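Re: How this chain folds, sequence and tokenised backbone to follow
How to read it: Take the token row as a discrete description of the fold.
Start of record: The labelled sequence and token lines come straight after this line.
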Amino acid sequence: MIGIVGMGYVGLPLALRYCEVGYKVLGLDIDPAKASALAQGETYIEHISSDKIRRAVDQGLEGTTDFARASEADALIICVPTPLDKHREPDLSFVVATTESLLPHLRAGQVLSLESTTYPGTTDEVLQPLIESTGLTVGEDVFLVYSPEREDPGNPDFVTRTIPKVCGGITPACLEAGIALYEQVIDQLVPVSSTRTAEMTKLLENIHRAVNIGLVNEMKMVADRMDIDIFEVIDAAATKPFGFVPYYPGPGLGGHCIPIDPFYLTWKAREYGINTRFIELAGEVNSSMPQWVVEKVVEGLNRHRKSLNGSRILILGIAYKKNVDDMRESPSVEIMEQLRARGAELAYHDPHVPVFPRMREHAFDLASVALSESSLREYDCVVIGTDHRKVDYELVKAWSQLVVDARGVYRAPAANIIRA
């Protein structure tokens, strides 16, 4: 039996894949609503259908909040959040609390794998001592590995099975056990020499994206001041068949990885006397993008002789990226916070998020409003925060007084559209 701790965007697809090849899977989560949904064969993640859940339940998927049942599992895979705290420093409380909950139920012969993104050293500095406090020896009694998740929710081109998986072990025996665990469900494994190498690999992947997005966001601001279309520039540069990969600007970074992971490395690097200025600068640029969008709203309203205070603003798309219901670290929400703080009256439309969800740091008592000619006329400004495919953008363009486009939806200039 495989035990997966954390049945969210990472843990649930992995559980479905193990069931698909014939394993019994125990899905452990502190949220009783998830266990209940699984028992009823209902999904709680939009891009995973209830049919897939029911099929997995028939094949042996069981959700539970009872961590004592971890002893039943031959392998335990930890897929819990690793956010930042209010000081933008790593918050390992979910990882530590999860591991401590498992400790009384560990037994010899089990494999433990951490998939949560974290700084190099977490597996051997934090998890290994906790595990060995039980009297079990890592590499002899239990086998500890780090294998970072690479899920991309809503991307139809890649599924859990087809995404190559990096794996590093505390010892050679641990790595061997990790490979045996994952080779059953993943087409290509990428073994590396240590857990720290695997941890750093995941960080490099996401820092690469964060830095390049920061670069293109900065280029966007320069191009805007020079009255140059940054999207035309990117498309032209992308015709170069070597040495250039196109990245596109937006209203900021979202999701559970890219806005957060670089700060895990900058925090750990300080322990070694290194100031990661390049990474931190990219973070500053990306973090400033919601403010840039808000200033574009102010600029557009000023053209209409209106004040932001008291204006009715419609946010079009509040998920962190298009075509998903994932709200984690969404820049649209930060834009909403800033607009609300300056007196705007807010509404939103998102075909994937019918009701604004409960979030740790944000509270909006809102539900998605319908788009129509009459409803669009009511708003002083429409802000495109997420470019979902299901939205009728021609309707939006035709009947909105002002559109602030933070995603490059409209390539041709129009009198009522401002690029942000």
